[in-house]
């Protein structure tokens, strides 16, 4: 069995008001050395079998078709055996 | 002229749209369930507001893969009139029928209030009963109405006169103060390049009768009817 861990974030060129608000809150908690906070989504998908290469292709396809919106979001993922 | 109101799981403005077509502009109208795979000779389709699929993942993203969407794309590619309101607009963006994407409102709040819109292009099937620069008072109700498009896309929108409505103040001034949600260039509504698909965040179906506080949205539906009748 394989597990894909997918991170989706807004592109750097897109402003992230949630991230900015959280940054303000963290600074007010005295974490004052923050330069940037970005919020994203984390998706975990279990995939049957152990063909890692095929799984990578599939996950990339899933990100492109549905999980991320390429106009506003970037994605990255890693796949590991479980 | 026959109208269709497309219903997704979680649509909640479908009955309002149906009511406006049926009772106010008095035209035949039918609901179209999202699992249908055929369209029954419609002249205009309405994608209503709501929270299709609970807004999971991204607003409109799951609905854009509903079975009916293939037919809706075909209908739009063949020049059929489509209007997407609020969540309907988000679905049109996610399905690629309109360019750009929606982000969360910059103030991170769900905003439900009347806003003013400035009519930027009245030479469309949806706005021919307005004057250019007409100021409309129409309500918005959304959490993700912060329209985004990259610079190249924005340039194209402008070159093709695809920007139809901008958020403004009561005098038609378009500025930061009159922008409720952070949308780029105060964009509230756009069409596709062909001009037969309109997406808008404000709700004309909630403002088509004086009793409801405004009937400024009524002329959108009247425009569609006028366009369809003239075409024949």
In short:
The complex is a heterodimer of chains A (82) and B (232). By secondary structure, chain A is α+β, with helices and mostly antiparallel strands.
Total strands of chain B: the figure is 11
Cα(first) to Cα(last) distance of chain A is: 6 Å
The level of helicity of chain A is 25-40%
Low-confidence stretches of chain B: none
Distance between the termini of chain B: 11 Å
CATH fold field value of chain B = Rossmann fold
The CATH class of chain A turns out to be Alpha Beta
One letter per element, helices H and strands E, the order of chain A comes to EHEHE
Order of helices and strands of chain B: EHEEHEHEEEEHEEEH
Determine the structural class of chain A based on helices, strands and strand pairing. Answer: alpha+beta
Q: Which percent range describes the beta-strand content of chain A?
A: 25-35%
| Count of the domains of chain A | 1
Q: Give the spatial strand order of the biggest sheet of chain A.
A: 2-1-3
Any idea what the CATH architecture of chain B is? Answer: 3-Layer(aba) Sandwich
Described by the principal axes of the CA atoms, the overall outline of chain A is elongated
Distinctive features:
heterodimer, A: 82 residues, alpha+beta, three-stranded antiparallel β-sheet, 2 helices, 32% strand, elongated, B: alpha/beta, Rossmann fold, two-stranded antiparallel sheet, globular
Overview of the molecule:
The complex is a heterodimer of chains A (about 80) and B (about 230). With about 80 residues, chain A is α+β, with helices and mostly antiparallel strands. Chain A has one domain (about 1-80): Mth169, Chain: A, CATH 3.30.1280.10. Helices cover about 35% and strands about 30% of the residues of chain A. Chain A is built from 2 helices and 3 strands. Chain A has helices at about 15-30, 50-65; strands at about 1-10, 40-45, 75-80. Chain A is elongated and about 45 Å long. With about 230 residues, chain B is of the alpha/beta class. Chain B has one domain (about 5-230): Rossmann fold. Helices cover about 20% and strands about 25% of the residues of chain B. In chain B, the strands form 2 sheets. In chain B, strands 2-1-3-4-11-10-9-6-7 form a 9-stranded mixed β-sheet, with helices on both faces. In chain B, strands 5-8 form a two-stranded antiparallel ribbon. The mean pLDDT of chain B is about 95. The interface of A and B includes residues 13, 71 and 72 of A.
